[in-house]
């Protein structure tokens, strides 16, 4: 009996630590409601015991899944979150009372958003590659990042001199209802690389996801995507709605349901031989066990090697998800609590990006356009 008690305590403690870390490293400064709510959950031993005892380890224990599930079910304070102990008590009581429904949503849904904002940080790399392109997204969700040509892009260069206006450049679909604004900067005193003059030419696109969504045809999928947008982030909510509206006007990309290791080879084989195959992903691999990430990397290298130089790998993941992707400049540019993603081309880190494409900070190593024409190596 002692062993079982210790295991339960350790499991509940792990859940509590995860919520406190989420509050401090991910929600702080981005969503006051989520930061406060997850901090209170992390201090609530009884509630953490419920989570650890009724949800399996792994994906189902993501804080973002619980938060979105309650919002999806129209739980209390769905838009603004608890603001004091009494409000947290109401949220807690409602969640426990509706726990069977909340758990059902958590177990059948994925916690990954599908934010088109990632296209703003992907576009500069896509535009450098030999055209035309065949895009293959891992963790494609609703496929909103597979049609970068539908959006308008505005890049604002951060000024290093007080009182001067930042330089700005634009490209993409000028009449698009979706404008993706991205702040650009560079490490040290180096120049900020130029943004693309036009969007890339895309002749094929496909994707894979364990739980692909179709917010155009399924209102429930759209409701879930909206629940994943954090409280107080009205701009992202508006952008999501506009992107889904645009998706209604274009053919839906072929996103298959399945495991990435199983489905990737067949999908890659569909890419036209004359196109440059680009396998890419944004914040998609963090929840995979380390050994499966290594198997995925080996698979991508193998698939691209067979393209005879007409293939590239663009990753945009949290620091440490692909631990071999690092450099001195990369380490120096990051803060321990930084929520930014590492943008890498063929396993070389080129930039740090905002979690939703709002910023692009080029590193001092490998930012020249010349690096883009080199194939991935194993």
Automatic annotation (TrEMBL):
InterPro entries linked to this entry: UCP012608 (IPR011200)
Protein name: DUF2332 domain-containing protein
Source domain of life: Bacteria
